[in-house]
Amino acid sequence: MSQNILVVAEVRGGAVKRPSLEAVAAATRLAARNGGKVIALAVGADLDAACATLATSGAHQVVAAESAALAKFSGDGNARVVAEQARAHGCGAVLMAHTAMGKDLLPRVAALLDTGLVSDVVDVDFANGAYTARKPVFAGKAFVQVRAARSPFVATLRPNNFEPVTGAAAPVSKVAAQAGDLMSVVKEIIAAASDKVPLQEAKVVVAGGRGLKEPQHFKLIEDLAAAFGPGVAAVGASRAVVDAGWRPHGEQVGQTGKVVAPPLYFAIGISGAIQHLAGMRTARTIVAINKDPEAPIFKVADFGIVGDAFEVVPALTEAIRQAMAAR
Amino acid sequence: MRPSCHNPQDPMDIVVCVKRVPTSDTAVKIAADGKSFDPAGVQYELNAYDEFAIEQALQIKEKLGAGSVTVVTLGPKDAQKELRDALARGADKAVLLVTDKWVFDSWSAATVLANWIKTVPCQLVLCGRQAIDADNNQLPPRLAAMLGFGCVTEVGKLELADGVFTAERDIEGAREVVTCRTPAVISCQKGLNAPRFANLKGIMAAKKKPLDEVQAAMPEAAMVIESMSLPPARAAGRIVGNGADAVPALIAALRNEAKVL
Ligand SMILES: Cc1cc2nc3c(=O)[nH]c(=O)nc-3n(C[C@H](O)[C@H](O)[C@H](O)COP(=O)(O)OP(=O)(O)OC[C@H]3O[C@@H](n4cnc5c(N)ncnc54)[C@H](O)[C@@H]3O)c2cc1C
Ligand SMILES: Nc1ncnc2c1ncn2[C@@H]1O[C@H](COP(=O)(O)O)[C@@H](O)[C@H]1O
Predict the structure, then answer these.
(1) Tell me: the pLDDT tens digits for B135-170?
(2) Which of these, A49, A154, A159, lies nearest to A105 by C-alpha position?
(3) Torsion angle (degrees, nearest 10) of CA A8, A14, A19, A22
(4) Closest ligand 2 atom, CA of A107?
(5) What mean pLDDT comes out for the span A237-245?
(6) Average of per-residue pLDDT across A268-279
(7) pLDDT tier at B2 (50, 70, 90 boundaries)?
């Protein structure tokens, strides 16, 4: 078995998503250790722009597996094509980003290749002839180091964890993909309001909890997020307020919500239950605002203000606005 | 071989896969072997996402007015408790594929579960999106590939018409609408439904429902745990002050120490 590494690119609207470029970068590090070649694979239709991006992403070779039937993603159809390409290139590893698409697609590929998969990987290595990887378990309360006992090694990599690289222009080849009889197909993608930053991609997350007392008081949270300027901050929420119907499910941070790791996280009127901490404890800087000095959130916060959110947050919003204007 | 499609007029036989996991408030400690969590004092519960899968199965059966709901788990004998709870909520049958060790490796778990599912009538498999112990987030699409079923993952809204599912799921910054033919595997996200609790009548009825136990033949793991560790503790932070007066001190800390402004 050769040591070639297949990296499956996520192409949306003709463009390669950044986490895919991060996965190619991680693959080049592995290839440097075991002498393999990195093959970036794009599947679908109208792949020229995506292939041009992939060609300079550090990959040694780019393959476009073209199929009009797969212009829109199909879990079963795409999986067949990826598994087929992994076999055709004798790949010892198949990687993709741990995104909604990666989580849907790569386990199917692993099953077709009758092998293991390690998900949400934060570190990956090749040593003594075997692939190893590190992944969080229990929502990040612990980590496991695993060794692949079956081949190929299949893994989804956590976004925002590996830095993309650039490389010399790699050759691009095209093959006709056999989509087969499709069981599931994406019909439509309903974009969120364009001024909204996805929670997991936001540089700043401003999260509110039950301490805000009423759903309409989330205006304070939204205003603070807006003070950072357009496209910077996203609103998050504790489960207590999501379950109460104050905020949508998509905003929940925690063990049964989203895990976020932004450079800056505000927890406002959030007590800091262990399930909430699981979703934000790897944020680089955590700020807590809570009127209870004993609230557990202060144990993980870098900076805390003990006080009433209704007084502190408007003052903070104004100060952030001025700080941003002064830049 | 192409699996047969579900005819809209037919009842649906539904399998719900559930896992018994440490409660979400467990403070994880590492066991002496350095490769697993210390089970001392750990309480267990039904994986939170699997509650949505059970509820969805019951709602589909109620809507079609026919069919069956079978819950299955690969886990320890103690998982009887979670299976009885599922029966009390309204499932018809439960099957416990017994294994003593903590189930981490999805390849082996899927192998055992798919082999079992192939032995029963089934046009729909419902799962949670993720088991909150191993956080693998991969068993449902694996099962789909092994069974030759269609699959939609992390579903927040689900409709069935003419034997075809229309599912909605959140992706990064957007919502995706996916159609999926039956037979299918659907993994359930929070928000899909509001799970019911068992009532007294259900608890009594559950005592008479079948709960079969079968020893599972677990293959060697494809992903072997070499070590388990705790993340580094966060360095202690500090309270910068009280009330709105503390805002300038916070801004200064964010600018000069954290360098995030
Ligand atoms: C299986 C399971 C999964 C869970 N998953 C999650 C999850 O993913 N995410 C999550 O968040 N939770 C989760 N939880 C719930 C978690 O245990 C807590 O119940 C929840 O996080 C509490 O939300 P909260 O902090 O908003 O509310 P509370 O705990 O009620 O805290 C409110 C805080 O606001 C403060 N406060 C009150 N008034 C003011 C004021 N005027 N100004 C400033 N501060 C004020 C109070 O001092 C208090 O600390 C889960 C629970 C279970 C059982
Ligand atoms: N040991 C198991 N037995 C039965 N079902 C399981 C088991 N492990 C996972 N599942 C199902 O698969 C879903 C996703 O789990 P996972 O891929 O392990 O994160 C869970 O929510 C369950 O529905």
Answers:
(1) 999 999 999 999 999 999 999 999 999 889 999 999
(2) A154
(3) 70
(4) 17
(5) 97
(6) 96
(7) very low
The C-alpha angle with vertex A77 and arms to A73 and A83, in degrees rounded to 5, equals: 115
- Rounded CA-CA distance A318/A321 in Å is 5
Q: What stretch of H or E contains B113?
A: helix B106-117
Nearest-CB residue to A147 (from B141, B178, B226): B226
Residue A76 to residue A67: CA distance in whole angstroms: 14
pLDDT at residue A1 greater than cutoff 70: no
> CA–CA separation, A277 vs A296, rounded Å?
9
Strand residues in chain B grouped as ranges (E):
12-17, 20-22, 44-46, 67-75, 93-98, 124-128, 150-161, 164-171, 174-181, 184-188, 211-215, 223-229, 238-242
* Amino acid identity, position A246: W
A70, A81, A144, A160: best mutation site toward chain B, by most B Cβ within 10 Å?
Answer: A144
DSSP-assigned beta bridge partners for residue A253: A258
Tell whether omega for the bond before B183 is within 30 degrees of 0, i.e. cis. Answer: yes
Q: How far apart are the C-alpha atoms of A271 and A239, rounded to whole Å?
A: 11
Are A61 and A88 in contact by the 8 Å Cβ rule? The answer is: no
A·B CB contacts under 8 A: 295
Q: In whole angstroms, give the CA distance from residue B124 to residue B14.
A: 5
Higher pLDDT, A111 or A139: A111
Strand-pair partners of B70: B15, B93
Q: In the structure, what pLDDT confidence band is assigned to residue A68 with cuts at 50, 70 and 90?
A: very high
Q: Which residues fall within 8 angstroms of residue B252, CB to CB, at 6 or more apart?
A: none
| Whole-angstrom distance, CA of residue A164 vs CA of residue A40 | 13
Report the C-alpha gap between B247 and A304 in whole angstroms.
Answer: 10
Q: What is the whole-number distance in angstroms between the Cα of residue A251 and the centre of ligand 1?
A: 14
Ligand 1 mutation pick, A247, A256, A281, max ligand atoms within 8 A of CB? A256
Note if the bond before A263 is cis, omega within 30 degrees: no
Mark yes or no for CB contact A111/B242 under 8 Å.
no
Which value does ipTM take for this structure? 0.94
Residues of B in contact with A320 (CB under 8 A): 251, 261
pLDDT of residue B6: 64
DSSP string, B40-64: TT--EEE-HHHHHHHHHHHHHHHHH
**Residues within a 6 A CB radius of ligand 2:** B 17-19, 47, 49-50, 53, 73-75, 103, 106, 109, 113, 127-128, 130-131, 134, 136-140
How far, in Å, from the CA of A85 to the mean position of ligand 1? Answer: 47
Asked if A7 and A38 touch (Cβ cutoff 8 Å), the reply is: yes
**Residue range B81-102: average pLDDT?**
98
Ligand nearest to the CA of B136: 2
The reply to whether ligand 1 has any atom less than 6 angstroms from the CB of B48 is yes
